[in-house]
Amino acid sequence: MSKIFVDACFGKETPYTPVWMMRQAGRYLPEYMEVRAQAGSFLNLCHDPKKACEVTIQPLDIVGVDAAILFSDILVIPHEMGMDLEFIKGKGPVFHDPLEGQSDLDKLIGGEEAAEKLTYVYDTIKLLKQELPEDKALIGFTGSPWTLATYMIEGQGTKTYNKCKKLIYTQPEFMHNLLGKVTEVIKLYLQKQIEAGADVVQIFDSWAAALEKPAYFEFSWKYMVEIAEYIKEKYPHIPVIMFPKGIGQYLDDIYGNFDVFGVDWSTPMALAKEKLGDKYVLQGNMEPCRLYSKEATTKCVEALQKVMGGKRHIFNLGHGILPDVPVENAKHFVSECHRVSSKG
């Protein structure tokens, strides 16, 4: 594995601070589009280890990032638990059988049985470990239980989260049953990713900002911490990254046994450093739209380096890359991160 990247996650001194892009980085490369067309559908691509391996490696070869993030999707978990998932062009992921109550939840498989159905993900990781250069770490990932639950209940992306939030306040026991069942699958899923060869694992909480503070820590963060504790107990040498999007106002209450905290672009890095810099390595947090301008990118990269000072930091975007960003601009981001970090 890449000792440089893993050491950075643990806060150890390295020759430079690594940089890597969110998993969407590869999804907008022309080379990815070619492989995607060959696969026939997005889910087919996720299920094909050889093709998934190929598109995982593309951002390393083309953009020059310092670690590979596994190509897959967070929604393969509820899909393999038994939900009917379809990716619809222009609409995104849709579950045709969203959950409405306990009887729907009881129909879903869980635990080891569900985790075993994700074999194609583990096979992709095994192939990647054969193909990746020794100096490149491989990052596995999962969505958080809360983020997965929102899709499972709403049936698709949502701006209001009214169905799942209604259940939080009217049927909290059901919500905890759902989150607990998903959590158990995620624990085994990440464990099997690590056993297959993942060097680092990350938990994405994309819809963290949908919840007010008390609800967030009850219905999301505590389950993420439970997963991290499970992984760190079994694999203390594996870095765990937590990335909850949009909760900068909750930083005083962040806790848990993990290594890296992902800072989204709406949270000032100086604030994250003040609140969490002594506990965790920080990752992030350039506003993705800065990639439209090389000048704006350089300005932000230099500002991040100045803010972080002597603290260990993993350069990254503050969320996913946008589809019309020129590849040359993404390459510029990586080269600028290397340039400023080499200065110390």
Question: What this model shows, in words?
Answer:
The chain has a single domain, classed as TIM Barrel, CATH 3.20.20.210. It has 344 residues and is α/β, with parallel strands linked by helices. Strand 8, helix 14 and strand 9 form a beta-alpha-beta unit. Helices cover 50% and strands 11% of the residues. Helix 11 runs parallel beside helix 12. It starts with a helix and ends with a helix. The strands form two sheets. A seven-stranded parallel beta sheet has the order 1-4-5-6-7-8-9. Strands 2-3 form a two-stranded antiparallel ribbon.
Write the layout of secondary structure elements.
Layout: H1 3-9, H2 30-39, H3 42-47, H4 49-62, E1 67-69, H5 76-80, E2 85-88, E3 92-95, H6 102-106, H7 111-116, H8 119-131, E4 137-143, H9 145-154, H10 162-170, H11 172-196, E5 200-205, H12 213-234, E6 240-244, E7 260-263, H13 269-276, E8 281-284, H14 294-308, E9 313-314, H15 327-342
Parallel strand pairs: 1-4, 4-5, 5-6, 6-7, 7-8, 8-9
Antiparallel strand pairs: 2-3
Helix pairs in contact: 2-4, 4-8, 8-11, 9-11, 10-11, 11-12, 14-15
